[in-house]
């Protein structure tokens, strides 16, 4: 519907008949802008509807995009951490084998090169070579992330190991030289590996990473403590610098384990185990002898004490290595679970993003279709409302014709119209004289037209006076003055003037089909008390009652 010809239609609820208000160009500009039937209104409402869906969609998409953008780097970091953990696992395996080789090599020197110790040392060398080969294979197969130039570090370590072993076999260095050489080589591996792990300490797993690095350092100091103690018991004495080195490594090992215990429940449970406490007690007893720099004991030989010390320290270090494996397994489990959660979050976010990108065009399409349907429905409703307005006006006009204005107004509002008594009113009956004779002479169709023309003439004359037309019955016309609007005593003159006017008007009317036949009227008027009210349900009529009405009817029927 074009905006230039449309008007805003609204229905006002009431207890009475339907009331319809038209709001057109005089309506506020906001209502005109939001009118469905105008092009501008439809455009604005469409934009509002699409925007109302677009803003939440943008918020949800932005939130999901942010979640995905945060989860993707975390997934990459978690994968990086798992690769570092795999590197740390193979590096720790090599370190523990080298630490044991260091202790056996020192023991080999201080034991007088016993064959039994030499065989154990050579067997340990084989384990070291195997561990290094496993490390190299892991690097070649991928899936692990070590520090930069790890291949160079492995090559250098192999060369140094071969060089140190040559000096051990040729006895070109002493036991302390062996310890220093192996320790220097282990430091070049431990330091970058520790940094590698610390760089990966992210999220809720940093405490486990710190615990693992502390335990790894404690194992190294315990290994030095093992090698120095073996030399002490084998040589039966310590110089001041070696004793100082032993005490420092012992303190560092215990301090690091105490620090790691603060960060991990696994370490606290480990140190509370009976086998660990028993091993620590044995190590403490031997350490006390070393720190006192005395060899007083019931052992049969110093080499036997060295073997006991080496065995107890090796058992303790193996327990620490087992602890490292448990920490690594726990860390692997947590990183795996964390990775699964992150990947699930990323997947859900990506699915939601795709769903939102697909949903909003569908929402827009359905919204446009809905707007078109509303537009069509609005047009249809507007057309129906216009027809309803016409019918309402027609009904109102008909009611106003059938009833007095005051009575019609109350009927339209749905109010009850109570019967009313009028002390003074005039009633007039008008009838066509010789009506039966006329019906015989004039055909039926022409008779209807004739009566209708006559009543129109009477209606026109009645409009000139304060008279209300009550009803028409056949050829009889009933009018009243003085009710329902009281007009004092003028009702008598109003009806009398009406009667005189009718007599004058009808003299100029010719009857079709009858030559020289004029209309004659019989008129009866009576004045007095009249009762008026609405009578009937299906076809309610405004009726008059009383002797005055009867008198007027008899005067008309008996008049000339």
From TrEMBL:
Keyword Flavoprotein included in the entry's annotation: no
Record field: transmembrane: 43-61, 347-368
Domain of life, source organism: Eukaryota
Gene Ontology CC terms, in alphabetical order: plasma membrane
Any one Gene Ontology BP term: receptor guanylyl cyclase signaling pathway
Keywords: Lyase, Membrane, Nucleotide-binding, Receptor, Transmembrane, Transmembrane helix
Compartment(s): Membrane
All residue ranges annotated as the Guanylate cyclase domain in the record: 426-556
GO function term, MF aspect, one: peptide receptor activity
InterPro entries for this protein: A/G_cyclase, Cyclic_nucleotide_synthase, Nitrate/nitrite_sensing, Nucleotide_cyclase
SMART domains linked to this entry: CYCc
PANTHER family in UniProt: GUANYLATE CYCLASE, GUANYLYL CYCLASE
Protein name as it appears in the record: Receptor-type guanylate cyclase gcy-13
